[in-house]
Amino acid sequence: MKRQGRGGGIDLQWANGEEAEQGLRETARSKAWNSGGGGGEGESRERKEGEGKRKRAVEQKKERDEERREERDNDEIMRKLTRQREREMKEMGSKREREKERGTEKRGERDGKLGRERMLERQLGTKRERGTRRKKGEEIGEMERERKREGREGERGKERESERREKEGNEREEGRERERRETQRGGRTER
Question: Largest alpha-carbon pair distance within the chain?
Fold first, then answer.
């Protein structure tokens, strides 16, 4: 499983991630042991390096496995899809052939215009429905126009109202002014 050379060399050809992990751990341990047991800093650095290598090796293995699995799944899906498409094409072809023999192919295929009419009907409703819709639209349009007209007239009415008020106010002011003048004059003449 593992080559044990000087300083415990690492051989990364294990069967799976767990064994690789264990092997790396053992290698790191033997390296630490060889570096003199309680060598303090040297030992911990060796251990850290071993741990780092171990983690990297395990992660890479997981990534590779995942990629392989995804590729396998994708290939399978593609195969299924192509098979399905081929089957559908074959069925469609045979169906068309049978219809041609019986003369029951779709009307739209026989006559493009009719097919287009049908499609339009499906999208917009029949001609009668379209007519009622148009009528409804016109009614709605008429209502809108009426509302706008009322709005304009309303605005004009407001303007007229404000003009009238202004005029009345001016007249009142002029009347007061006239009264003041007259009382002044009257007062003088009385004296």
Answer: 142
The domain limits of the chain are: 17-101, 113-190
Distance CA 1, CA 22 (A): 11
**Are residues 46 and 35 in contact, defined by beta-carbon separation less than 8 angstroms?**
yes
The sign of the dihedral angle between the CA atoms of 158, 162, 165, 171 is: negative
Residue 23: count of CB within 10 angstroms of its CB: 21
Helices (H), 103-126: 107-110, 112-124
How many of the other CB atoms lie within 10 Å of CB of 187? 9
Average pLDDT of the segment spanning 9-29: 63
Q: For residue 26, what are its two tokens?
A: 């053992």
pLDDT tens readout for residues 32-45: 666 555 545 556 77
Q: What is the CA radius of gyration of the chain?
A: 49
